Amino acid sequence: MARSTIRIRGTLLLGDDKASIARAAKIIQNGSLVAFPTETVYGLGAAATDPEAVKKIFTAKGRPSDNPLIVHIAEPEQLSDVAGQVLPAAVMLAEQFWPGPLSLVLPRAEKIAAEVSAGLSTVAVRMPDHEVALDLIRAAGVPIAAPSANRSGRPSPTSYIHVLEDLAGRIDAVIRSGACLIGLESTVLDLTGSRPVILRPGGVSRERLETALGCRVIVSGLNKESGRPRSPGMKYRHYAPRAPLVLIAGPESRRRLLIAAIVESCQQKGLHVGVLSSFIKGSARGLTPALSEPEQLAANLYQALRQMDKRGIDLILAEETEIKGLGLAVMNRLRKAAIRVLKV
Ligand code: TXA
Ligand code: MG
User: Fold this and answer.
1) Which domains are present in the chain?
2) Most exposed: 41, 74, 161, 223, by fewest CB within 10 Å?
C-alpha cells in the first residue's frame, strides 16, 4: 500500500487506520513526537521511558520545565510499570473509571524518565478512552507521556487542526482523527497524601469520585490555601485566548442584563464582542455555540476560544456556570482564562 507523505511544514499527517498507527508507533519508538487523539483533548506523545524524547516535548510546546506530564497506558495492568507503588485506592478507581478522563498521581516507577515528573517523585497516569490512543500505546509497546498538544498558554486542542495550528513544523507527526468528545482535560487526582486531592478538575466529576471513594474530596485551590501549589501546572495562566476574557458572575437575570449592555455599547464603538453563554445563540457574529449544559460548554469551549481569536474578536464575555459536575472544570478553565471577574 502506498504510504501517505502529506507533510505540513515538515510535520507528517497520518490517518487513524491500523497501518498509520503502526507507523506512528515506530516514530515514538525512535524517540520522536506524535500528536494523537484522546477522548479529552489531543495529546503530544513520546516514549515515557526515554529522557531525550521527553525533553523534546517541553521544547516543542515551550513548556516550563517544572510542569510534569501525564503518562498514558493501554491496560490497567500496565499501572505497575509506571507507578512505583500501586495504592489500593488507585486499583479501585482504575476499575471504575478507566478507560476514562481520570489521571491518578502516584509514586513514580524507576523505568519512567525523571523528566516526565519534572523534579517530583510522583507521576500522573491514565488510560484514555479512545481506541486510536489505546492502539498507539499497544503498538509502541511503551507507556506514552503526553501533555495536551498545544503551545504552552494556548487553549488545548480538541481537533487535529488545532494541533497543526500550534505545532506544525515543531513535531514529527499528527494522527488525524475526529474531534475530542469531552473537550476538556482529565481530572488529576493526587492519591499520595493522607487524603485524596483533586489537583485539576476535569472529565470525571468530584461528586463521582466522592461516591467511589466514600469520602469528601478536596479540590486544590478552590479555597484559599497557603504554600506552593501541589500541581505545578496550576500556577501558570493557562487556556489563554488572545482577546481579553471577562467572566460575568452573579444572579442569572443580572448577568444577562450586563452582558446585553456591554455587547451593545461595544458594538456602538465598532468593537467585536464574542459571548460564551447559553442565552445569546447566534448573536455576536454567530460565534456562540449552544452552550446550555456544562457538557456542551466543555465540548465547545476551546474550539470557541480559538475561533474568536481567528475572527479578531476584541473582547470575550463568558457567563459563569454552576460548579456542579463538569461545571467545576469549565469554571476552573474560565477563571484561568479570564483577566477579570465582574460580579453583578
Ligand atoms: O486529558 C488530559 O489530561 C490530557 C490528555 C492528553 O491526556 N493531558 C493533559 O496534560 O491535559 P497537560 O500536561 O496539559 O496537563 C497535565 C496536568 C498539569 O496541570 C500538571 O501539572 C499535572 O497534570 N501533573 C502531571 N503530573 C503531575 C504530578 N506528578 N503531580 C502533580 N501534578 C501533575
Ligand atoms: Mg495542557
Assistant:
1) 6-219 (3.90.870.10), 245-343 (3.40.50.11030)
2) 223
Q: What is the distance in A from the centroid of ligand 1 to the CA of 188? A: 7
* Backbone phi and psi for residue 205, each to the nearest 5 degrees, phi listed first: -75, 155
> Pocket around ligand 1: residues whose beta carbon is below 6 Å from it?
38, 40-41, 43, 67-70, 101, 103, 105, 117, 120, 122-124, 128, 146-148, 185-186, 188, 199-200, 231-234
Q: Whose CA is nearest to atom 33 of ligand 1?
A: 231
Identify the three-state secondary structure at position 61. helix
Q: Quick check: helix, strand or coil at residue 157?
A: coil
Sheet of 273-276, strands arranged across:
273-276, 315-319, 245-249, 340-343
Cα of 257 to ligand 1 centre, how many Å? Answer: 37
- Cβ–Cβ < 8 Å for 307, 322: no
Which residue has its alpha carbon closest to ligand 1 atom 20? 233
**Are residues 322 and 332 in contact, defined by beta-carbon separation less than 8 angstroms?**
no
pLDDT digits (tens, 9 = 90+) for 35-87: 999 999 999 999 999 999 999 999 999 999 999 999 999 999 999 999 999 99
Residue 291: predicted pLDDT: 57
Predicted pLDDT of residue 30: 98
Of 106-110, 114-118, 131-135, 233-237, the one with minimum mean pLDDT is 233-237
DSSP 312: T
pLDDT at 221: 80
Cβ-Cβ contacts under 8 Å for 328 (sequence gap 6 or more): 201, 205, 206, 219
Rounded CA separation 127/102 (Å): 8
Instruction: Determine the pLDDT at residue 37.
Output: 98
Confidence tier at 289 by pLDDT (50, 70, 90): very low
Distance from the alpha carbon of residue 227 to the mean position of ligand 1, in angstroms: 20
Nearest residue (CA) to ligand 1, atom 30: 231
For residue 186, what are the CA distances in angstroms to 38, 143, 169, 274, 317? 10, 17, 27, 27, 25
